[in-house]
Amino acid sequence: MHAKISLRSVIEDDPLGIEWTTQYLRERHAETPPTGYVTSAQARAAHAASATWSEAVTSPAGEDQ
Known about the structure:
Layout: H1 2-12, H2 18-31, H3 40-48, H4 53-56
């Protein structure tokens, strides 16, 4: 959501400037780090190790998320 808003601002009219928008985006992403996601490399490795694609792209349950 933050990336979409920032990109729209930069593409359409950029009233705040690219520097401010970039800093804003970095700060928002630092507040919500990507956890609990499966990377494409992890999914491909799991799929290559005989997991179905649905299993390969499913986030692990529990504390390891």
